[in-house]
Amino acid sequence: MRTMLVLALLAFAMPAYAANHAVQIKGMKFTPSKISVAVGDTITFTNADPMTHTATALDGSFDTGHLATGKSAKVKISAAGAHPFHCAIHSSMKGTVTAK
Ligand SMILES: [Cu+2]
After folding, report:
1. Which residues are within 5 Å of ligand 1 (an ion), measured at CB?
2. In the predicted model, what is the mean pLDDT of residues 26-50?
3. Which of 7, 13, 72, 86 lies 20 to 30 A from 59 at CA?
4. In the CATH scheme, what is the code of domain 16-99?
5. Distance between CA atoms of 61 and 72, rounded to whole angstroms?
6. DSSP H or E run through 5
């Protein structure tokens, strides 16, 4: 009984890391387009548009590859700093991931 209580308290004390962030791709836009994360976090990009998109970091730090309608991809952000990204198919679609 006592052990159970200690384990429960330890679970609460664990730091929350590796959060996942969600970005929608819709209407030729990334929403949100500015994403603040911690190094080690993941971002799931989901394409809700009727055409294929990508989310491709200009510094090569992440790339979803081609996402068809309804598809999603999870990328991990491993480096600190600002990572501007765009859609490799529609270069006017832009965003920035900032990792601390
Ligand atoms: Cu696109």
Report:
1. 53, 87, 89-90
2. 98
3. 72
4. 2.60.40.420
5. 18
6. helix 2-13
Question: For residue 35, what pLDDT band results from cuts at 50, 70 and 90?
Answer: very high
DSSP class of 8 = H
Query: What's the CA-to-centroid distance between 57 and ligand 1, angstroms?
Result: 13
What's the gap in Å between 2 CA and the centre of ligand 1?
A: 55
Domain ranges of the chain: 16-99
- One-letter amino acid at 58 equals L
Cα(88) to ligand 1 centroid in Å equals 7
Residue 94 Cα to ligand 1 middle (Å): 10
How far from the centroid of its chain's Cα atoms is residue 39's Cα?
Answer: 11
